[in-house]
């Protein structure tokens, strides 16, 4: 075969709209046949004719250019369009990877970006572009550099009217950078493009234009963390450059949305950076991340996260409607929007304006701006601009699936016999109130207390109501005794511990148990030297407990000094291990309620159950006596009650104890015993004799 039959390019949308559907189907069949011929050719034949087949390159560029735009329904609908898209992808793959010299037009950034927008989330496309980048890196990089330079000049020189023309090109760069991380890294090389985007963001106030700028910078910065060779240093440099241009922490900086604030508030850039720094820690990156988080909190009022709107599934349960609503069925607010636009553009029909409002989310300012800039999409520009809303020509009523039905007649029911009640003769104050009048304030503002007391007209009624209420009151009915509800033994009547204090105490106990478990496992972790403080286990313990190095080391020092606290933690640790399923038997500690005077603290116990210090005599033998004697001569121990030191032992505290005893007698007499008896009698529910 000498040469392949040429491929005709895809016509523009204006020409496609004039082609009949039957002829368009023939065009698609011819394209499928010629593409199949090139794809199924042998390697030798393809190598011979691919370099001279310019018609295929022209067709592919026109096809993806039209397919990436939204105004070409002929390439998006139909049973054969999917086959055509698949064949175009296969031919592109063969031209990029199998041809001896790949066409430069197929390696341009516009063609690759259009392919990425036509095949979203395609793993085959990502694999193809990755292989094409490895094979033709210089050509694609050169095309990206030219595009970045041209885009920088357009952003620097563009006005508000020219901004919408740059948006499609920036979107193609964004999509290409998201599919090929190397392309995003090429966009972030240097600072000209980033600085120009920052200035353009401040110069233009259009939301769609700002979103496009934020998207391309986000894709470029996140691509620096992807690929086999992440470039964290360049990412931090670019973020520092954005921070410096924004003027964070400067006293003269105006509080307004910036490119950096929109970037960190509307995307997950800081989350990605934090995740990367956890696996690759760096002091410079951690400091920058902390400052950006503080700036994010200050700028949250200006931005919101970009969330993809979920499409609502049409289940076919709504009423059938026409393409345009009837004029009388349209909401009055929608009609006011139509009249606002018609005041400025009287030549436009109401139906055409309604279609514009549907596209631009009922925003008349956006519609007017696009009409003034002449930036209406081609599919709306080709419509009839004098189209009016349809009017009702028939007087027949519309079909209502739920027409009103007459109410069925009421069925007479037998009269209900009045029921008798024991409270029928009681006086209800609500029935005596006047319900036919509504008053604000007092019913009779001139009436005084003396007048009310002197009025005896309702005395009998009020007295009857009081006596009825007293008759239902049972004075012998006592409330439930909740003295011991707090704890099984030794509970208090009034619990003063609030939920907040209980939660704080529980957290402190859990923290002590965590520290003690670590202390038992590795005591060297609490050493007070610099090597231990810089170790990874110490850092993990600090993150787990939220404590500083000084607090952790001080906790260990105080624990070593307090033997009782050490014993308590040992008991708690053993109980937590014994518990089923890993949960400890954490029983509440109930302290004794009886008063115990603190004794002298020595080498032994800090206090005892007796009121006198150890070593005092008793009347019994060698042990603590249980009687009420004044102490034994043999000095066997302290007596219970008023037993003091016995028989002439050489204790120096005897004189002081006697003096204290006389003082207590003189000051309080026997009142303490009386008060305790009164409490016991009251708790038992009796009366004092």
Automatic annotation (TrEMBL):
Residues in CUE domain copies: 333-376
GO molecular function: ubiquitin binding
InterPro entries (alphabetical): ASCC2, ASCC2_CUE, CUE, UBA-like_sf
UniProt region (Disordered), positions on chain: 389-421, 576-689
Top-level lineage group: Eukaryota
Ranges annotated as biased composition (Gly residues): 634-651
SMART domains xref list: CUE (SM00546)
PROSITE patterns linked to this entry: CUE
Compositionally biased region (Basic residues): 668-682
Signal peptide: none
Biased amino acid composition, Pro residues: 403-417
Pfam families: CUE
PANTHER family hit by this protein: ACTIVATING SIGNAL COINTEGRATOR 1 COMPLEX SUBUNIT 2, ACTIVATING SIGNAL COINTEGRATOR 1 COMPLEX SUBUNIT 2 ASC-1 COMPLEX SUBUNIT P100
Protein name in UniProt: CUE domain-containing protein
Record organism: Aspergillus minisclerotigenes
């Amino acid at each position: 075969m000498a040469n392949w039959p040429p491929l005709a390019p895809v016509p523009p949308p204006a020409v496609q709209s004039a082609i009949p559907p039957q002829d368009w189907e023939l065009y698609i069949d011819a394209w499928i046949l010629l593409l199949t011929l090139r794809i199924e050719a042998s390697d030798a034949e393809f190598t011979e004719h691919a370099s001279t087949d310019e018609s295929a390159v022209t067709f592919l560029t026109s096809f993806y250019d039209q397919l990436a735009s939204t105004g070409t329904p002929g390439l998006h609908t139909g049973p054969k369009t999917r086959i055509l898209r698949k064949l175009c992808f296969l031919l592109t793959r063969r031209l990029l990877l199998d041809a001896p010299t790949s066409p430069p037009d197929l390696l341009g950034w516009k063609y690759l970006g259009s392919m990425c927008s036509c095949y979203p989330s395609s793993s085959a496309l990502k694999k193809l572009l990755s292989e094409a980048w490895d094979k033709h890196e210089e050509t694609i990089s050169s095309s990206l550099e030219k595009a970045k330079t041209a885009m920088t000049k357009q952003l620097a020189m563009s006005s508000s009217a020219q901004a919408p023309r740059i948006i499609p090109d920036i979107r193609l760069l964004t999509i290409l950078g998201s599919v090929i991380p190397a392309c995003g890294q090429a966009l972030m090389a240097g600072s000209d493009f980033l600085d120009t985007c920052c200035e353009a963001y401040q110069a233009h106030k259009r939301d769609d234009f700002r979103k496009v700028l934020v998207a391309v910078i986000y894709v470029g910065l996140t691509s620096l963390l992807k690929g086999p060779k992440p470039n964290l240093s360049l990412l931090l440099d670019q973020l520092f450059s954005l921070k410096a241009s924004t003027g964070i922490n400067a006293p003269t900086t105006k509080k307004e949305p910036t490119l950096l604030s929109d970037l960190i508030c509307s995307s997950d850039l800081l989350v990605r950076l934090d995740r990367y720094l956890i696996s690759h820690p760096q002091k410079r990156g951690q400091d920058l991340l902390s400052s950006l988080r503080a700036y994010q909190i200050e700028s949250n009022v200006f931005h919101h996260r970009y969330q993809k709107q979920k499409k609502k599934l049409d289940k076919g349960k709504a009423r059938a409607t026409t393409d345009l609503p009837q004029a009388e069925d349209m909401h009055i607010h929608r009609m006011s929007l139509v009249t606002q636009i018609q005041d400025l553009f009287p030549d436009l029909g109401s139906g055409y304006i309604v279609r514009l409002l549907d596209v631009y989310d009922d925003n008349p300012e956006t519609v007017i701006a696009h009409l003034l800039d002449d930036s209406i999409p081609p599919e709306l520009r080709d419509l009839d601009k004098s189209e009016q809303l349809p009017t009702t020509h028939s007087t027949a009523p519309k079909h209502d699936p739920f027409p009103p039905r007459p109410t069925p007649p009421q069925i007479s029911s037998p009269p209900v016999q009045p029921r008798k009640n024991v409270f029928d003769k009681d006086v209800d104050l609500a029935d005596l109130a006047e319900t036919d009048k509504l008053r604000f304030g007092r019913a009779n503002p001139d009436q005084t207390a003396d007048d009310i007391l002197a009025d005896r007209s309702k005395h009998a009624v009020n007295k009857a109501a009081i006596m009825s209420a007293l008759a239902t009151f049972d004075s012998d009915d006592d409330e439930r005794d909740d003295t011991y509800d707090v704890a099984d033994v030794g509970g208090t009547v009034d619990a003063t511990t609030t939920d907040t204090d209980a939660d704080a105490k529980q957290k402190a106990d859990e923290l002590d148990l965590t520290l003690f478990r670590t202390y038992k496992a590795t005591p060297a972790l609490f050493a007070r030297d610099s090597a231990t403080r810089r170790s990874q286990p110490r850092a993990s313990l600090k993150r787990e407990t939220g404590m500083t190095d000084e607090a952790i080391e001080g906790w260990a020092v105080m624990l070593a000094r307090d033997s009782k606290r050490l014993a308590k933690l040992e008991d708690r640790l053993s109980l937590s291990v014994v518990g089923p399923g890993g949960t400890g038997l954490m029983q509440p500690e109930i302290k004794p309620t009886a008063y115990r005077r603190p004794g002298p603290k020595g080498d032994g116990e800090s206090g005892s159950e007796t009121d006198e210090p150890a070593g005092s005599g008793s009347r019994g033998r060698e042990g603590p006596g249980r009687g009420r004697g004044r102490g034994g001569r043999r000095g066997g121990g302290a007596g219970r009650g008023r037993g003091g030191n016995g028989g002439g032992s050489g204790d120096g505290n005897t004189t002081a104890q006697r003096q204290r005893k006389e003082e207590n007698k003189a000051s309080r007499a026997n009142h303490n015993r009386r008060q305790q008896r009164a409490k016991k009698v009251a708790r038992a529910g009796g009366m004092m004799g």
